[in-house]
Predict the 3D structure of the following.
Amino acid sequence: MKRMIAFISALVVFLGVAFFMTGNGQKKANTKKVPTVGILQLQTHPALDAIHRGVVAGLKEYGYVPGKTVKIDYQNAQGDQSNLKTMSQKFVNEDAAEVVGIATPAAQALVSAAGKSTPVILAGITDPSGSGLIKSDAHPGANVTGTSGESPLKSHLDLLRELVPSAKTVGIIYTTSDHGGEYNAKKFAKICKQEGVAYKMYTIANTNDMQTVAEKMASEVDAVYAPQDNGVASAMKTLVSVTNKAKVPVIPAVDTMVKAGGLATLSVDQYQLGKLSGEMAAKVLKGKDTSDYAIKVITKGKMTLNLSEAKKLGITFPASVLKEAKTKGVVYQ
């Protein structure tokens, strides 16, 4: 009887230990299966924030739910280049399954830190090959892929000419440290030249320069084009406060810049761009090879108008433009 009791006691202890170990082992296995996705954003402004929300939504659509089936480590450098480097290295040191870069400087910092191992997903990066991030759109190579937000630049010029037909000279402004902004500005200038539209180029080193540069520009041009540029977007309200006094309309590249005071644009939906990046990120997590995963580009824009800005400038939107914005785009009152 004593032997039986001893045997049962030993068996209970054994099963308890086995259960404990198995439970812990399972817990570790489950924890290991939950990947960490690092998201690095250059700075806060509406367009980049919309891309961020889209990335998370795209991941979720493919089963990667934040806090449940994926851990999102979101970092915002607030425009500080040193922060970009530190935050990128943090992702690598903590063994993130993949990282997502929102804005060209963020993507460049991630690619530099990741080497050839950690997958890097680009989220709405202008000219990724020209930025040195990939070999080509069709065959990115190595561990980098994602989306590119190519602006419909010719459509922007056509819209500017339709809304401001009296404009003889167009001012084009960009940030010298923003590769995407410079790329868009110079490409827009090339289109102006091809179309016989006179233009002047203006640059800012950072947002602190906007007031002075905008005042000079507003005195020399009849309309302003503000490309997809992080520095210009962040200083949009300063730009518009100056140009409004001179009755000079600003045609920006992005809908959020219209909301901040621009007159109108045909804008690529930044949220949808981010969502597409999130979907690509999910597929890479599931095993898709980045090296031959072609860059996806969205170029079709939606009409976005600012009625209060038009009223301040004494501009009346053509009926066709207003109809398009009301039925397929966005109208800010």
The radius of gyration is 25 Å. Residues 153-267+301-332 form a domain with the Rossmann fold fold (CATH 3.40.50.2300). The CA atoms of residues 101 and 107 lie 4 Å apart. The longest helix spans residues 2-33.
